């Protein structure tokens, strides 16, 4: 009803037709459907609706359109009347006045919701009457009507009010028609925009069969750059819906064209959605095709494109993350959890009730196949036992040495029952073809090689015996694997290359094979050089060339994935560009806030590289942590706890703790970042390191601006969580005083949350059976609050007592002995606000405990006497809370008699 006053200013006299003198505005609360009430005419309500719906006065028609929802509610009891109203709505949709049509369309989402709630009564009303109106208005000649229709359509889809049949049979055909090459430009641009917005609300099948090919055509629209720009901006949404296969087959060529478009705005839009597109492609496409394409964008001639590319660089790098490398994965709530590891120091075998299959290859401490540092990726429950083994199925059981599979760091070995549960509930067994059992083959190969080595050693010793030569050193039977051993294992794994875990293992074996072959070549070259030196005294030119080639090969080995994981995780060019974001020159040529974008995405880049490659980012992180812009440091402060999870306890203690300590002394804008996640960071530290921060918690009480009460509120919330990290003695010695100071804060919000902190501290003391400390704390609460000269303190004591009872912080006999007398003494407090909380505490909490319900309780008479006085209190609120039934939350009126 907004804007009705504008009509009044024009001096409309038609308000008398509605049967009342002053129609008023929306805020006046007068019914907009008052024209349906009986007036001077003899028309029925339906007749009166018909009269005003098609009145010659535009204002009357607008009022009817604006009040359609209320009209439907009034006629919803009678099906025939309701249908008549819907027929009237359908005819009103053809009104020649655009403002009437726009008013009508604004009410369509509300009417649709009403019909949805009453679907049993009117199951087909929405599809029959309203959908045709929405579809027709998409091609309305008036721009305002079209915009209103598009907005209504989005709302209908977001609320799930439009059926799939209506979308595929009515809406999509209209959009396809409007996006034809021969369509009007304005209609086409609008249709493309609405189609791109709808795609996220449609099913994959609908998008693939109806919209995908047309979208590909629109991406190549030569005539209208606005169309290409809309397609580029929404390219990621289409990729996310249709999936990897369609993205790589149909959409990727279009994306390459858009990334090289002549208009910088289109290239900028591509850079902004690059991460979403990358997530929809395979690792191979991401590495070989998208990475070079992104490098082109990041060196684009347009500063705006470069700016968008650098802002997306960290997010694009994060798409290369592999849980098998990072050792971490995300839970459904978005938190990072470490994937349980498999110990590489012991052998494991497979055991199953029905069959036996090998799940892990590890022959000895100097095993031929060294497992990856992070082996498991659980997809169902990251905090529980692993769902499967990367080299086999989940039926694997530990050997007699007691080492369990999937044992999380710092946790006890899994029991046999836990391992059985892991096997029972693991769906991995049901779709994965079993890996070959090569443990015995591997052992036989090693035994054969060992026998050959021993024979050669014996022959050599027999040949050299008695000749005065030095004894040949004994070879280790458990020595490094030879190239022939590795090659045989690779041959066994070839039939199973479709398994991603086998692929990863083959990569490791291939690197080991290459290293073994190069080592063999080195030995041959050394032997050849030695023989040459023995005859000529110096190597020939050909020998020098061979030696230099071997040296070059060694350099290549040092950069191989097995020894330099960075090159195996992300392309080096991407990493170099990311590290350059801290260069001051970038701020001048690209973006003044480029360092902030670097800081924002650093945890994602660190997660992608893995903690073994933290050395690549360490200098960059330290540079950002000392940036002169507090926004950069604030960004790091808010994410330092997540980075600690990524790096692990050792790197956190060495590299993050010093920076964390600097943030604690920074500006309040930076300190709030570490304060909001103080518990999350401290729980990752070792107990001795964590205890050092007990001395610094008091510093959070001091802020740059004393009026920044939210800082102290956040401190109280964090202390409630931190209590569990420390012993009861530390809580009493350090956190108790902070809590009491917060309870005396000038801001009520800080005080109320601090009262909960006091309760948690008391609960900690009694849970640890530190009754002496608990009693000391209680006496301090009584002196500080119950006997406080200010009514706020006495009110706080009543609230604390109620919370103690509700949370069962201490035995009720101890509460009755030490706290209840002080609480009862406040029942006659001169301030009503104190007596209200006393009444509430006694009636809702104390009397509900079995200890006090017993009529023979020593305190039952005192409680009843106090409540009787409160029931007769002169303050109505005190009376209410002292007589209220806590179970029904209503006034016990009989108690007032």
From TrEMBL:
Stretches assigned to coiled coil: none
GO molecular function: protein phosphatase regulator activity
PANTHER family (UniProt xref): SERINE/THREONINE-PROTEIN PHOSPHATASE PP2A 65 KDA REGULATORY SUBUNIT, WW-BINDING DOMAIN-CONTAINING PROTEIN-RELATED
Mapped HEAT repeat ranges: 290-328, 819-842
UniProt xrefs under Pfam families: HEAT, VPS15-like_hel, WRNPLPNID
Keyword Repeat among UniProt keywords: yes
Protein name: Serine/threonine-protein phosphatase 4 regulatory subunit 1-like
Domain Phosphatase 2A Regulatory Subunit A helical: 89-318
GO cellular component: cytoplasm
Record region (Disordered): 342-416, 453-483, 519-546
InterPro entries listed in its UniProt record: 2AA_helical, ARM-like, ARM-type_fold, HEAT, HEAT_type_2, PP2A_Regulatory_Subunit_A, WRNPLPNID
């Amino acid at each position: 009803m907004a804007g009705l006053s504008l009509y009044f200013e024009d001096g409309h006299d038609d308000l008398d037709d509605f049967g009342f003198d002053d129609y008023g505005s929306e805020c006046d609360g007068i019914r907009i459907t008052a024209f349906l009430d009986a007036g001077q005419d003899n028309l029925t309500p339906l007749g009166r609706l018909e009269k005003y719906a098609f009145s010659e006065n535009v204002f009357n028609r607008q009022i009817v359109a604006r009040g359609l929802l209320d009209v439907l509610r009034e006629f919803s009891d009678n099906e025939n009347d309701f249908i008549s109203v819907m027929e009237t709505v359908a005819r009103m949709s053809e009104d020649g006045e655009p403002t009437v049509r726009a008013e009508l369309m604004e009410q369509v989402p509300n009417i649709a919701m009403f019909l949805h709630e009453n679907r049993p009564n009117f199951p087909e009303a929405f599809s029959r009457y309203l959908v045709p109106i929405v579809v027709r208005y998409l091609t309305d000649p008036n721009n305002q009507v079209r915009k209103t229709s598009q907005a209504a359509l989005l709302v209908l889809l977001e609320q799930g009010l439009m059926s799939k049949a209506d979308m595929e049979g009515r809406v999509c055909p209209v959009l396809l028609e409007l996006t034809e090459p021969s369509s009007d430009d304005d209609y086409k641009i609008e249709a493309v925009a609405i189609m791109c917005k709808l795609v996220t609300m449609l099913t994959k099948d609908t998008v693939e069969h109806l919209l995908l090919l047309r979208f590909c055509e629109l991406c190549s629209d030569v005539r209208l750059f606005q169309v290409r720009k809309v397609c580029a901006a929404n390219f990621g949404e289409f990729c996310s819906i249709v999936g990897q296969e369609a993205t790589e087959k149909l959409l990727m060529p279009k994306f390459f064209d858009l990334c090289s478009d002549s208009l910088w705005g289109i290239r900028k839009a591509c850079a902004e959605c690059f991460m979403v597109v990358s997530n929809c492609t395979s690792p191979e496409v991401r590495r070989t095709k998208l990475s070079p394409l992104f490098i082109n964008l990041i060196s684009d001639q347009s500063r705006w494109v470069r700016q968008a590319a650098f802002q997306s660089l960290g997010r694009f790098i994060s798409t290369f993350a592999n849980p098998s490398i990072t050792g971490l994965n995300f839970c459904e709530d978005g938190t990072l959890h470490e994937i349980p590891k498999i110990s590489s120091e012991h052998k494991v075998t497979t055991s199953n009730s029905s069959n036996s299959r090998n799940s892990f290859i590890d022959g000895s401490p100097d095993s031929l196949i060294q497992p990856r540092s992070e082996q498991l990726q659980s997809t169902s429950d990251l905090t529980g036992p692993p769902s499967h083994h990367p080299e086999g199925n989940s039926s694997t059981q530990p050997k007699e040495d007691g080492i369990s599979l999937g044992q999380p760091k710092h946790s006890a070995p899994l029991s046999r029952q836990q391992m059985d549960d892991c096997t029972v509930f693991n769906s991995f067994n049901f779709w994965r073809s079993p890996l070959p059992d090569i443990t015995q083959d591997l052992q036989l190969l090693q035994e054969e090689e060992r026998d050959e080595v021993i024979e050669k050693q014996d022959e050599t010793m027999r040949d050299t015996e008695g000749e005065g030569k030095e004894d040949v050193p004994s070879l280790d039977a458990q020595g490094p694997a030879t190239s022939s051993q590795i090659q045989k294992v690779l041959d066994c794994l070839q039939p199973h290359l479709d398994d991603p875990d086998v692929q990863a293992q083959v990569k490791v074996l291939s690197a080991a094979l290459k290293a073994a072959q190069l080592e063999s070549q080195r030995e041959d070259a050394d032997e050849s050089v030695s023989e040459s030196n023995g005859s000529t005294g110096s190597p020939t030119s050909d020998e020098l060339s061979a030696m230099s080639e071997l040296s070059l090969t060694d350099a290549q080995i040092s950069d191989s994935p097995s020894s330099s994981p960075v090159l195996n995780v992300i392309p080096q060019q991407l990493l170099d560009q990311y590290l350059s974001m801290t260069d001051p020159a970038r701020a001048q040529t690209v973006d003044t806030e480029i360092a902030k974008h670097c800081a924002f995405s650093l945890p994602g880049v660190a997660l992608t590289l893995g903690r073994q490659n933290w050395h690549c980012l360490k200098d960059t992180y330290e540079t950002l942590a000392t940036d002169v812009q507090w926004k950069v440091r604030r960004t790091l402060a808010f994410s330092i706890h997540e980075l600690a999870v990524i790096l692990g306890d050792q790197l956190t203690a060495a590299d993050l703790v010093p920076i964390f300590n600097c943030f604690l002394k920074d500006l309040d804008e930076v300190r709030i970042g570490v304060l909001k996640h103080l518990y999350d960071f401290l729980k990752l530290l070792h107990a001795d390191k964590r205890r050092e921060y007990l001395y610094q918690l008091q510093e959070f009480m001091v802020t740059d601006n004393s009026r920044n009460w939210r800082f102290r509120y956040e401190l109280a919330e964090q202390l409630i969580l931190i209590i569990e990290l420390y012993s009861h003695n530390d809580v009493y010695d350090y956190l108790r005083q902070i809590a009491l100071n917060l309870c005396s804060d000038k801001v009520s919000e800080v005080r109320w949350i601090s009262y909960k902190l006091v309760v948690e501290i008391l609960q900690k003391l009694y849970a640890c059976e530190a009754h002496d400390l608990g009693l000391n704390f209680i006496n301090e609460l009584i002196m500080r609050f119950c006997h406080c000269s200010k009514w706020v303190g006495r009110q706080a004591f009543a609230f604390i007592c109620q919370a103690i009872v509700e949370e069962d912080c201490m035995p009720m006999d101890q509460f009755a002995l030490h706290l209840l007398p002080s609480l009862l003494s406040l029942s006659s407090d001169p301030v009503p606000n104190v007596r209200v909380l006393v009444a509430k505490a006694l009636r809702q909490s104390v009397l509900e405990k079995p200890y006090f319900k017993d009529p023979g309780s020593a305190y039952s008479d005192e409680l009843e006497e106090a409540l009787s006085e409160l029931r007769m209190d002169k303050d109505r609120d005190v009376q209410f809370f002292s007589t209220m039934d806590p179970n029904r939350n209503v006034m016990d009126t009989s108690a007032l008699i």
